[in-house]
Structures are given as C-alpha cells and as structure tokens.
TrEMBL record:
Its EC number is 2.7.11.1. Keywords: ATP-binding, Kinase, Nucleotide-binding, Serine/threonine-protein kinase, Transferase. This is non-specific serine/threonine protein kinase. One of its GO terms (biological process) is regulation of mRNA processing. GO terms for molecular function: ATP binding; protein serine/threonine kinase activity. It catalyses: L-seryl-[protein] + ATP = O-phospho-L-seryl-[protein] + ADP + H(+); L-threonyl-[protein] + ATP = O-phospho-L-threonyl-[protein] + ADP + H(+).
Length: 418
C-alpha cells in the first residue's frame, strides 16, 4: 500500500500567499444565516485533507446547516489529470434536525439506485462518497458530489436582460421535467424545496475547476480570522460565462425531501413558491413540486417573482393572506373541497369561503397570467400560458404530472423571435 500511495496525487503545500483580512465584527457567509451557531459548524481550513483523500481547495458556498467546498480528490494516479469534487460538510446535529443529514444521504442513495436507465436519472444530483468527520465531541456527516457550475438564478444572468430566452428555457424544462418524473414516478420522492437555487448547471469544462483552485491558492480571497481559531472564507463560485448556450441541469439539495408514498403534512417550500394546500395545511403530495416549478418560471423567463408582493426579499415580512389573495386573482376563489381539507383554513377564510380580514390587500384586476408575461409574444405566449395553467391550479389533484407536462406542445414549438 505505501508504494501505491506514492503513485497517487500529493497534497499541495499550504498557500504562502497572505489573504486580506476581513473585519472580525462583521458577520459574513454562513454567519448571516438564521440561528447560526459556530459550535455546530466544522472549522474547515483550506489545504487540509479529509478522509486522507480530499484536500480543500476553495469554498463554493454555504447554507444554514452546511458549508460546501471544492476539493482535490487525491485518490488519482500521479500521471492522470486532477479530479475535483464538491464536499458538503454538514453542521453537527441539534434537536430540530437530529437526523436531517443522514436522512438526506438515505434519500440520495435511494434515488441513485432505483432505476439508472430512466431518462431523468442523470438530471438528479447523486452522491459519490460519504464519511463522518469527528471534531471534539461533534460529528459532521460529509457528502461528496460532482462539482456543478451554478444555480439557475445565476445562469439566467448570462443572457441579455438577465432572463433565459424561451428556446433555451424549453430545453432546460425538458430536463427538469424528466428529473421530476424520475423522482415522483420511480422513486416516490417529493423534493419539497424546488426553486432556482436548487437547480444547477453542470460544469462543461473541468479545467475551470483547476483554474479556480489555483487562483485561490495563489491569490486567496479575503478571510475572517475568528478569536476561537476558526476561519470564515468567502465563497468562490463564479466560473464566468459558459462556453455552451444550453447546459445540462441537475436537481440538487435533497435535505428537505420526503417520501411521497405516505401522507405528508406541515410547512414546506420557500414562501413565494409555496403551494396553497401547504399554506392551508391540507396535506401535500408530488403536485406541490409541480406548483413550485410553475411559479419559478417567472424568475427565469421574466427576471422577477410571480408573487413579488409577498417576497421576503422585497417586503419586510411574508404575508400569507396577501399571498392567497394574489393566487385568487390568478385562479379565482379557492374551491370548497380545498378549504375543507386545511387545518389552518379558518385563519384566513370564513365558513362561506370569504376572506376573514376585510383590510387585506386586494390585487388589481390587471394581475393576470397574460399581464405578468412581457418577454413572450403571440403564439409563444399563449402556449406558455396554457402550459403553466396546467401547473398552477388550486386543487393539487388537477395539476398535470411531470410526465404529462413533457407531452405539452409548447416545449417543442419553435417561433421566430420578434
């Protein structure tokens, strides 16, 4: 074994470059997430080698309970090219997410194994490896993935006007729908958090990973040195303009995913992508993902949120009654059978289906599918509206499935640009 190890890639020496220092009293990156607790996050340092195999090269991103790193995979022959992986280091467990990281790994393994021959299998992010880091009394489950280029919300900024053209979006949507069909029909999994952050474009040229790692090693981004010895790094995740017009997508982030072959209730989804049955707590199934997908198409095609009036990034606080009012403006009043299923319905509606709060902001009559779409025209616009109206429906059981949506003619229609 020692002789074989000598033939593998060796760790780079620690960088001799001096990184600029950030103010200690300013919160950055993961420190700005809700309920951040430094004791739960693994104090990763660039250059360290984990599992005697993965050397941290740059930071790619972070979440409320993890940090993501680009790492060199040293388990390669010295004469082979560098291989890079994305390493998700989960925070140690606490009472509300005791087994969340393990649950994510279990679902990812399930998704990886169900049916690799399905068309949608390749559009789902799958783990390459997993291991646990022990640090003091804490344990950090770490997942290893193929590195990806960028989420759709960044990808759209590569195009004129920061919106994805209709012809490109149709190709991306076909991939997304194949992926959702695989999740729903083959794996019986509901993603529960579908949004532009969680659909990513694959790396088209691995050399950009090497360039990013070298750049961080030779010209490190500013860092924050904490009094307890931790270092908070800035994420280096902009790989520049892609050389290809349309990339391959992967659906990511399954830490909130659930099995769909059993009843599910409770709060899921980011607020502006939240389905009405979830707001009312009437239980949800696969069609909740379909609602989210339909709503997020405005982000990509129009560069704005469909329900921007309740977007927490635009207003001080998410307002559920206002959200329901805007859904009513689009779809008409909610069906009685939906209201009867919701355990929270009486917070918003009277027994006759009217809003309880008379002061609720009523959307103007101009809030329609037609009036919210500016970047499509003529037949392309009409067919798109027909497409999204099959997804954005009050009753979950009336929404089209991913498999059915793949048959819609808008996805394959070609139009001359105006």
């Amino acid at each position: 074994m020692p002789q074989l190890w000598a033939l593998k890639h060796r760790p780079w020496p620690l960088s001799a470059a001096v990184a600029p220092k950030l103010p200690v009293n300013e919160a950055i990156e993961e420190e700005r997430t809700p309920y951040y607790d430094p004791a739960r996050f693994y104090p990763a340092h660039l250059g360290e080698v984990l599992k005697d195999r993965y050397q941290l090269a740059t930071k790619l991103g972070y979440g409320s309970s993890s940090t993501i790193w680009l790492a060199r995979d040293l388990d390669q022959w010295r004469w082979s090219r560098e291989k890079y992986v994305a390493l998700k280091i989960n925070a140690s467990a606490h009472h509300s997410r005791e087994n969340a990281a393990q649950a994510e790994l279990d679902i990812l393994r399930h998704i990886s194994e169900v049916n690799p021959r399905h068309k949608g299998w390749g559009f789902i992010r799958r783990p390459l490896d997993s291991f646990t880091i022990e640090h003091g009394l804490s344990k950090h489950l770490s997942l290893v993935f193929e590195p990806l280029r960028e989420p759709l919300w960044i990808y759209r900024e590569r195009f004129i006007g920061d919106v994805i053209p209709s012809d490109v979006l149709k190709i991306l949507l076909q991939m997304i729908l194949h992926g959702l069909d695989y999740l729903h029909s083959e794996c019986q999994v509901i993603h529960t958090d579908l949004k532009p952050d969680n659909i990513m474009i694959k790396v088209e040229d691995p050399s950009i990973l090497e360039a990013s790692a070298r750049d961080e090693h030779e010209h490190p981004l500013p860092q924050k040195e904490c009094s307890d010895g931790r270092t908070i790094y800035l994420s280096r995740n902009n790989f520049g303009i892609s050389q290809k017009t349309t990339g391959i997508i992967q659906i990511t982030d399954f830490d909130l995913a659930v099995r769909g072959d059993m009843p599910n209730k409770g709060c899921i989804q980011a607020e502006i992508y939240r389905a009405p049955e979830v707001i009312l707590d009437g239980g949800y199934s696969y069609s909740a993902d379909i609602w989210s997908l339909g709503v997020m198409l405005w982000d990509l095609l129009e560069g704005k949120k469909l329900f921007k009036e309740v977007d927490p990034l635009q207003v001080q606080e998410y307002d559920e009654p206002t959200h329901l009012a805007y859904i009513s403006a689009l779809l008409g009043p909610p069906p009685k059978e939906l209201l009867e299923k919701g355990t929270r319905t009486d917070l918003f509606y009277k027994s006759n289906g009217e809003f309880k709060n008379p002061s609720i902001i009523t959307p103007s009559s101009t809030f329609t599918f037609k009036n919210t779409i500016c970047n499509l025209h003529h037949d392309d616009k009409q067919m798109f509206i027909d497409f999204v109206q099959r997804m954005i429906k009050w009753l979950p059981e009336e929404r089209s499935t991913a498999k059915e949506l793949l048959q819609h003619p808008w996805l394959y229609a070609e139009f001359d640009e105006d």
